[in-house]
Amino acid sequence: MIKFLQTIITIAGFIVPLATFFEAEGGTGEQKKKQVLTALMSEIDKAGIEIPKWAKRFIEPILSLLIDAVVNYLNRQGFFGHGEES
User: Three-state SS for 49?
Assistant: First the structure.
């Protein structure tokens, strides 16, 4: 379980640059989230990041929640220039 959490933390590091890229592209929040999720899955494959067998069927919902959490945090910090003030 600890290794899985370390893997999730590693994957979270990919979200900021991807979210920044797709934020600049425009679109609705849901469209950008889908784009980030698709790109994130691709980057996980390219990087050879291993997801445990037991977690594979849950990985998309887990990553979706992780994207929401990271983007929410970035919005609260004013990273995108349109988030809530902290």
Answer: coil
